[in-house]
Amino acid sequence: LPGYPLTRGNWVPVAGAPRLTQARCELLREIQILDEYGDRRQIHIPAERPLTVFVDKRELVTLMTLGACPELLVLGYLHNQRLVGRVQEVESVTVDWDVGAAAVRTHGGVQDMAAKTAHRVVTTGCGQGTVFGDAMQQLDTIHLPAAQSARVRQSTLHRMLETMRQQDSIHRKAGSVHGCALFSLTEQRGEMLMFVEDVGRHNAIDTIAGWMALRGVTGADKAFYTTGRLTSEMVMKAAGLGVPIIVS
To answer: How do residues 16-33 score in pLDDT, each as one tens digit?
Structure first.
């Protein structure tokens, strides 16, 4: 379905992976408008909605999202904010759209959660993205593959762009969303492994991060694609996933 994460291959969750619900919701909403010619007609718009995340019954943050795959979004958000190191630390992620909430249960709690979330940095992302201070402090610990191994062929770039151009998407029908994808640089160069759309590209990369963590997928031989400009937050998140090449 357009807007829902699209993955290639038979990916199996890592051992000890958390239990996830599969909450689904309508990604588009049909409304009546009065257009520039004074005519009334029906159009589709993305159905953005709030999702409040609770970790061990403690409210953490409210994410504005389409909700294409909210469990992976929450998992990736916790991973990218350095609140969770391994997915095995999470027992379950339960999403209930009736109340607009995601309940995360961990096995042993998030260590020093109050201290990790006390300081926030507003980034240059559209809509003013926020990164917790602890994640910012760990930037210097990120090590990417050596420059000589982080290369991409021009033909691979062309394939990636053509794949994105042909992708069935919410943007084609309603606009107003960003699309992000993860590509392989080995074997079939430029093969798309996952594609997801959301109102903000930071949400889309968090969803991809959740998918990678759940499946134990590493980023060294991957390339990340995003629509729109590359904000500092997007670059930091891609680097945190170990992905050495980002294409905008």
So the answer is: 999 999 998 999 999 999
Among the listed residues 121, 128, 116, 122, the one whose alpha carbon sits nearest the alpha carbon of residue 82: 116
Class of residue 212 by CB neighbours under 10 A (exposed 0-12, middle 13-18, buried 19+): buried
User: Is there a contact between 58 and 184 (Cβ–Cβ < 8 Å)?
Assistant: no
Cα 101 to the chain's mean position, in Å? 18
Angle at which helix 201-215 crosses helix 70-80, to 10 degrees, equals 90
Instruction: Report which of 89, 104, 92 is spatially closest to residue 59, judged by C-alpha positions.
Output: 104
DSSP state of 224: E
Q: Are 211 and 72 in contact (CB under 8 A)?
A: yes
8-state DSSP, 24:
-
Residue 39, amino acid: D
Single out the residue of 21, 12, 66 nearest to residue 198, CA to CA: 66
Q: Name 146's Cβ contacts closer than 8 Å, sequence gap at least 6.
A: none
The gap between the terminal CA atoms of the chain, to the nearest Å, is 24
Neighbours of 26 (CB within 10 A): 12
pLDDT per position as a tens digit, 124-146: 555 556 666 556 667 777 888 77
Q: Where are the alpha helices (DSSP H) in 83-129?
A: 113-118
- What is the pTM for the complete model shown? 0.88
Q: How far apart are CA 195 and CA 181, in angstroms?
A: 4
What six digits make up the tokens of 125? 């992302």
Q: Can you read off the two tokens belonging to residue 241?
A: 């996933």
Residue 120 CA to residue 104 CA, distance in Å, equals 21
